[in-house]
Amino acid sequence: MIGLRAQKKQETRQEISDQATRLFIERGFEATTIAEIADAARVAKKTVTNYFPRKEDLALDHHEAFTAGLAATVAGRAPGESALAALRAAFLGAASSHDPVIGFSGEPFARMIADSPTLTARLRELHELREEALAAVLAVETGTAPGDIGPRAAATLLGGAHRVLFREVMDLTLDGLGNDEIADRAVASASAVFDLLEPALGDYAVRDAA
């Protein structure tokens, strides 16, 4: 159970994020200022930057879960399970629950990102950070020597699969499809994408069953 002070901070952070998202969708990301967000959330401008040092993170406020997600999935995989199998299962679960981390966001939000060069660039950066985090975990999990390119290569392939699937979810959202139909298509696409990787990575980073 969290204390009242911590709860108040969470509420303030959420209010800032909600107001920022509303303004970004209404006016566009580049056209909205931090001062306007602060006024809408009824906080000082410094409070906004204390909670969100980067303006982009006001819009992409799931960025920490996003960058850590693939690595966490691999680190928590079951005995006898490969990195690929764990990531496949996690993606299918996320698709069924319409998880924002894999791109489910609604058309207005997806349009906001697509129309903003700054947010598009930041999203590419987050994809790269996610792959770096995954590579670090794969290196540990496979006991790879420092400097070995294997974990980075595997992370690039696995991360690239997730980039492609994220883009598809966003594109289908922009096309006006509902979440259920997007999920159905994403599941089918995920099966095809992960099947392509199976010959190369099906036996990679399998957790010791013992």
Automatic annotation (TrEMBL):
**DNA-binding region(s), chain positions:** 33-52
* Pfam annotation, one family: TetR_N
Provide this UniProt record's keywords sorted from A to Z. Answer: DNA-binding, Transcription, Transcription regulation
| InterPro entries from the UniProt entry | Homeodomain-like_sf (IPR009057), HTH-type_TetR-like_transc_reg (IPR050109), HTH_TetR (IPR001647)
Q: Which sequence ranges form a coiled-coil region, renumbered to this chain? A: none
The Gene Ontology terms for molecular function here are:
DNA-binding transcription factor activity; transcription cis-regulatory region binding
Q: Which residues form the HTH tetR-type domain?
A: 10-70
Looking up PANTHER family in the UniProt record yields:
HTH-TYPE TRANSCRIPTIONAL REGULATOR BETI, HTH-TYPE TRANSCRIPTIONAL REGULATOR RUTR
The protein in question is named DNA-binding transcriptional regulator, AcrR family
Native organism = Rhodococcus maanshanensis
